[in-house]
Amino acid sequence: xxxxxxxxxxxxxxxxxxxxxxxxxxxxxxxxxxxxxxxxxxxxxxxxxxxxxxxxxxxxxxxxxxxxxxxxxxxxxxxxxxxxxxxxxxxxxxxxxxxxxxxxxxxxxxxxxxxxxxxxxxxxxxxxxxxxxxxxxxxxxxxxxxxxxxxxxxxxxxxxxxxxxxxxxxxxxxxxxxxxxxxxxxxxxxxxxxxxxxxxxxxxxxxxxxxxxxxxxxxxxxxxxxxxxxxxxxxxxxxxxxxxxxxxxxxxxxxxxxxxxxxxxxxxxxxxxxxxxxxxxxxxxxxxxxxxxxxxxxxxxxxxxxxxxxxxxxxxxxxxxxxxxxxxxxxxxxxxxxxxxxxxxxxxxxxxxxxxxxxxxxxxxxxxxxxxxxxxxxxxxxxxxxxxxxxxxxxxxxxxxxxxxxxxxxxxxxxxxxxxxxxxxxxxxxxxxxxxxxxxxxxxxxxxxxxxxxxxxxxxxxxxxxxxxxxxxxxxxxxxxxxxxxxxxxxxxxxxxxxxxxxxxxxxxxxxxxxxxxx
Length: 519
Known about the structure:
mainly beta; 38-stranded antiparallel β-sheet; 1 helix; disordered N terminus; disordered C terminus
């Protein structure tokens, strides 16, 4: 019984729906003629023809009206108007009063507030207020001009949807895209495919995002990057303000100097295009690209900055908990500055460098490079070089200031200036034959095959050779000796590890602070 009632209710609803009729099109014209050659009910209308249908008014010079089909064909100076929302012109137009579908052809122009669309074919559905052009269209909105092969117009949403070879032209840039939406009120373009935004100052690429052509602010994702005069910024997501050149990157950020082959990477970054400044933080690191990319220099720090120097040169600064790695050079310090003008890298606050078997320390260190090779290293105050022979024996060089000279990226010669001290363990057929302790104001040391071969004491030398076992273990190390290998990064991945596990015996000895007594 319930099913029978439900059937009659549904049948009644269907009868009600199909019994509804669409309003008939009304018309007015100077001349009306019957033309059965076109159709039995065809009326030919000539001169100031006007049609009215459900709030829409259509004007034209002549038309055919088909009363049985409730449809018309309009010709010459066709203009379709619906209040303030729709203004549509064309040379010809077909209109179906039952489906409320219009098909405009030849020199079509549609106006939506301040936007004007030009095309040769436009189909417009009055029920959904959606228009479609299948073969090239041009939209002009203020200073923006948009073209595409295909497009949709959503009147209710003030939205155009463009497909295939989409181009936006403004006085300052051009946008090329595969798929795009454009809001005529907010003037925001939304991208859904490979997109290029090109201007005199930069080139932007993305595969998803939006660009506000009114404020020149954009947010882009999917392989997003911005290139500006030798600087390239990449990230999972980029925010950009064209007027002030402010760029902001989130996740997998790359700030690349394509001229100097330097890359800054991290999880968050900013770039000031007009000032040519940028910084990276959150797991940030810097790569100085070598000709052999596998042997590039990697530098990690809490924050990395790129600032302009004279001309096209740059200054790169790395702050706090700095680690560096290259196959032939590793290091640690609190902060680092690299100037591309002279290829000098400066290490600040308790710096340590490792070159092959040598540990190099001083209060301040400067590394001089050229053509991706180390030329020399300068050590200032409390300079100390240590190389390990075994767990008990370490060759040591100490002085006020030092200069280390490199050959083929290996330490070749060391010059000590002031307060020179050395401890050296000579060998015979791989066996230690004693210990050589010496002091001299200035010292010249030559190395070969990563080992000390010759030592020249220049001023006030005092050297003594001791047979094995004659000196106590405490006398085999110079004052200030610290073996800090647990800080040394062994791979480029270890630049993110501040120190490896080590024993208490490995810890550097700290100076004891005495109490201040009252006199």
